[in-house]
Amino acid sequence: MTTKLAPVTSPADCKAAIQRENRRVTSYDVALLAGVSQSAVSRCFKPGASVSKATYARVMKAAQGLDYIPNAAARSLITRRSNIVGVIISHLANLYHPEALSELSQQINRRGKRVLLFTWQNELDVEHVLTDVWQYQVDGVIASAPLSDAHVAEFSRRDVPLVAFNPGQASQLVNSVVCDQREAGHMLVSRLAAAGHRLFGIIDGPESNAVCNERRRGCAERLAQLGYPAPVIVRGNFDYASGARGLRDIIAQAGRVPDALICGNDVMAFGAIDCARHELGISVPGELSVAGFDAAEASNWLSYQLTTLRLPVQKMAVAAAELLSNLIDTHDGDAERRVFAPQFIEGATARLTLPASVSLAA
Question: Where are the beta strands (DSSP E) in 220-296?
């Protein structure tokens, strides 16, 4: 049986009574001190709930006086929601993910929920991570890597809303927010080809990375459309060392320095540029144009000023949070795919105009 406090007129009196009973401050105590109903106190701490400015001010003043903090666990028992959103990222996430994670967290927080981060070593090893997701009983999940149809079906069976964030080839069964990676590859090749580049090299990402695979396909497709030689392609691992190694391997396979080098992310582009300039004595962009993807923070540093593509992360984060919030509230509707275009960043590592010796007719 809950003990009710006698009416009090000050936070000090209320605190003293609570201390005598050796218990925590509750919403009932705040309601008593503020002179409002307990449900009014609950509404004041629920984002988006309707409450008058006067009531809100009284409740907040009382809560501050009592050092009251709402009990999220107790509230979840009543609402049957944890108010937690799981965000799943891979160990091999590209460098734009810190920015994306920050944006996602802000958007989710504005909707009254908190982010719980789950990571795995590679995008093929998801079973143990999904087991953790089920245990925390999250309200929904935003996943930044592709999930199989079987995994998507498991989310549906457990009635856990799911939104895929920039996963490459997402399942048609799941809501997704993506940047058109194939079109990004088309865009990059088109700009470099228009500047007179003909022989291309590509340092690709890990074979399991769907986003990088889509980018590579887009580049190869556009080169084929233009009637240019197929690119020389080597595998990288999204790290600095594989950028340098990839450039050396491409030169060895091609028998010459390519006109343009496209890297699956900016970090590999950094490795390739430093290898060209400081190890091989190749001028960038005089002899070799280098471009990356993702517009990582270091891409605009003076040492690089990288030519790259930027993802509209803020817009994508808003869309993902909005989609997931709607799914949590309704749990129905057909799967929706929202597609965004990348932005081309004209850096200093690629020649983007025809050389003076080449005519437009050529």
Answer: 232-235, 260-263, 289-291
Tens digits of residue pLDDT in 336-362: 889 999 999 999 999 999 887 655 444
Dihedral of alpha carbons 297, 300, 304, 307, sign? positive
- Name the stretches of the chain with pLDDT < 50: 1-6, 77-79, 95, 360-362
SS3 content of the chain, % helix, strand, coil (to 5): 45, 15, 40
Measure the CA–CA gap between 167 and 165, rounded to whole angstroms.
6
What is the distance between the alpha carbons of residues 177 and 114, in angstroms, rounded to a whole number? 20
Tokens 């980018």 map to which residue?
A: 215
Which domains does the chain carry?
11-70 (1.10.260.40), 82-179+313-342 (3.40.50.2300), 181-311 (3.40.50.2300)
Of 177, 201, 322, 332, nearest in space to 258 by CA: 201
Structure tokens at 350: 């690629």
Proportion of the chain above pLDDT 90, given as a percent: 42
Q: 169, 189 in Cβ contact below 8 A?
A: no
Q: Which amino acid is at 7?
A: P
For residues 69 and 66, give the distance between their C-alpha atoms in angstroms, rounded to a whole number. 9
The SS3 of residue 234 is strand
- Could you identify the residue written with the tokens 């993506």? 178
Quick check: helix, strand or coil at residue 123?
Answer: coil
Q: H-helix or E-strand containing 63?
A: helix 53-66
Residue among 272, 242, 271, 252 nearest 260 (CA): 272
From residue 287, alpha-carbon distances to 3, 16, 267 in Å are 81, 78, 20
Describe the strand order of the beta sheet including 232-235 as a list of residue ranges. 232-235, 200-204, 260-263, 289-291
Residues in CB range of 68: below 8 A, 6 or more apart: 25, 26, 27, 29, 30, 62
% of the chain surpassing 70 pLDDT: 86
> pTM of this prediction?
0.72
DSSP codes joined into one string, 159-218: T--EEEES-SS--TTSEEEEE-HHHHHHHHHHHHHHTT---EEEEE--TT-HHHHHHHHH
